[in-house]
What does this fold into?
Amino acid sequence: GMMIGIECKNPELAQRVTRRVLERGVIVLPSGPKGRVVSLTPPLCIGAQQIEFGATALIEELAHEEATFS
It folds into this structure.
């Protein structure tokens, strides 16, 4: 499958986003140097609706972080 990551400013941000996205039903994991990366590894057979659902959850949680902590 595909592997992609989103590097965050700090590990705490990656942990918060990971936790909230997981609570919404999307499997993401913290990874990378010091846990600063939100790792996405969707299967090759993922459908368009699943991609949209996961991307929306991730975008909304990152936007929430931006609005709350900037």
The longest helix spans residues 48-69. The radius of gyration is 12 Å.
